[in-house]
Amino acid sequence: xxxxxxxxxxxxxxxxxxxxxxxxxxxxxxxxxxxxxxxxxxxxxxxxxxxxxxxxxxxxxxxxxxxxxxxxxxxxxxxxxxxxxxxxxxxxxxxxxxxxxxxxxxxxxxxxxxxxxxxxxxxxxxxxxxxxxxxxxxxxxxx
Length: 143
Known about the structure:
Blueprint: H1 2-28, E1 34-43, E2 46-53, E3 56-63, E4 72-74, E5 80-82, E6 85-89, E7 93-94, E8 97-98, E9 107-111, E10 114-117, E11 126-129, E12 132-133, E13 136-138
Parallel strand pairs: 3-11
Antiparallel strand pairs: 1-2, 1-5, 2-3, 4-13, 6-11, 7-8, 9-10, 12-13
C-alpha cells in the first residue's frame, strides 16, 4: 500500500511540473497581442477582419496573396490568434511631424478601387497584421 502511495506521489509531482510549465508559457505570451476573430468580410482582393481584444474591436485589412508558405494556417471566426498589428490609419505623424486625428475622414482607400468605412465601433482606426496573408496566418516555428 505504501508503495502505491509513493508511486502516486511521484506521478503527481511530474504532472504538477508539466502544468507549471504550461502556465509559464502562457505568461510568456503577450496577452495584448491575442485577438479573437469576430467577423470576416471579403472585398476582393482584400479581407476586412474584425478582431476583438478585451472590449475593443479592431478592423484589420489583409490583402489576398497567392504566394503562401507551407507554414501558413487558415484563421477561423471564433478562434483566438496572436496578431502583430500595425496602424494604417490615422497616421500619428508624417516625417516626424505630429498631425491632427482623422479630420472628419469617413472612408479609407485600400487600392484597386476599394474603400473601407471608418467607424466608431473600431475607434476610427484601421490596422494590418504583419503575420497575415489574406486569411492565412504564418505559423510559429515548430522546432
